Amino acid sequence: MKGTNISQVPVQAVRFMKLAGIILVLFTIINYVLLLFTIKIGDPDWSLNFTTTIVEEGIVPILGIALMFCAYGFEEIIGLAPPQPKLKWDSLKFWVYLLSFFFGIIFLLIIPLHISNAVAVSNEAVEIANQTAKEEKETLAERLDEQQNVIGDMLRDKQKLESFTRKRQLSEEQIANLEKFKSNPNAFKVKVEEVRETLTKQIERKQQREIQKSQLSTFHSSIKIGLTSLLLASCYLTIGWSGFKGNKPRRVR
Predict the structure, then answer these.
(1) What is the pTM of this model?
(2) 3-state helix, strand, coil in the chain (%, to 5)
(3) What pLDDT band is residue 5 in, cutting at 50, 70 and 90?
(4) Alpha-carbon gap, residue 69 to 92, rounded angstroms
(5) How many CB atoms lie within 10 A of CB 92?
(6) Where residue 129 falls among pLDDT bands split at 50, 70, 90?
(7) Residues 19-55 as b or e (16 or more Cβ within 10 Å = b)
(8) Which of 73, 91, 82, 101 is nearest to 14 (CA)?
């Protein structure tokens, strides 16, 4: 009984490892298929998220394949492996090698696709930043011109100016500036232009920060996902190639 129990342990371990490997591979394939149900053709944001998710989960099938081949290795060690026949389409190994080839090609194609999507998303973000900055500058110009006309009209009317200073409870410095602008309209125009220039520079700095953030994000995403996808493709293609190549019949000399 004791010997029987010992022999059953490695047999069960081999089965569980194969089952776990198959589940990991199927789990990833199901996730990939479900992602396709959210497809948005022509949307670079969706395409970017899609390729990113595909690559980030790409290691899971490799772990599943590794578990399956560990199981095959244990079968060899404990003497449970059957004689190695020619690789056939109805064997699990055949589909593992074929799936590895398929994944390898997919991850190679993802590299240029992801970079293209990342650039498209970055260009869209740059356009939004430029458009937002343009609108903010136009709004700023309208408000400054409006305020300039209102204050200029008030400076020309002594009664309005006195009423304004009483209602706002201005400081002595502010009252002195109003008196200065009243006596020297050019100084008032210079001050308005200084404010316009300061606020315009703030808008432009904000615009540049948004553009740089988008470009940096694109560079980081392209490098990270591109290199990861290349490594995954190399791994999958190596598995597929070694499997089919290793099962070719040898020529007898």
Answers:
(1) 0.75
(2) 85, 0, 15
(3) very low
(4) 11
(5) 12
(6) very high
(7) ebbbebbeebeeebeeeeeeeeeeebeebbbbbbebb
(8) 73
